[in-house]
Input
Amino acid sequence: MLNIAIVEDCESDLEALNTVLNECIVETGIFAKIYPFSSGEDFLKSSYSLYDLIFMDIELGSKNGIETAAYLREKNIEVPIVLVTNMMQYAISGYSIHALDYILKPIEKESFKEKFSGWIKIIKQKKKEIIFTTGNGFRKEKISDIYYLEVFGHNLSVHTKKDTFTVRSSLKKIEDELSNSGFVKCNKCYLVNLDHVTNISENMVEVGGDWLTISRREKKNFINAFTGKIGM
Output
């Protein structure tokens, strides 16, 4: 079951988005429930951490969509957010809150439906888990909770939202397991989850509060992967 929120203060726009979303749900055969909200304030009073996908109107009332989304990011909630706007130039605001995508009003059904399938694939990927072999047995982690992996010798340090732990494995093996999950090397020692990148400055990247070096060899690929992910 997927929980999808729509935050939209224009009743006709909310109804239009709700209609096309229901059509997509029926056509794809997924199980999903839609939760509509008419303001950012109402949305933030809800159990917002439970949503798997959020459609956020940028031009909301007193608390606009970017401010509302920024609050979620401050709480370390990495839910995919699709921005909804009347004007394309507003969509660039999505960079600051790591928006998954944006759509323009009025909604074009066929284009929306094509994008919807891609969004669902990303959501399912975020829900996936990976099992690590530790010195004491096994540990299961949500892929979306991993900040980055660091190699030293024949071991890896796995940096997550909760803590850091050590496993005996190669970076190449884990990189293969995490292919198509948004992880990219910034140098030969680090494999980074792009969803958790908060800053890039010259040859450094900030992820999970730590600053890591971007090597000359990996820089082009890393920057391309990052900018491609945020739609720049």
Observations:
- The first helix runs from residue 11 to 28.
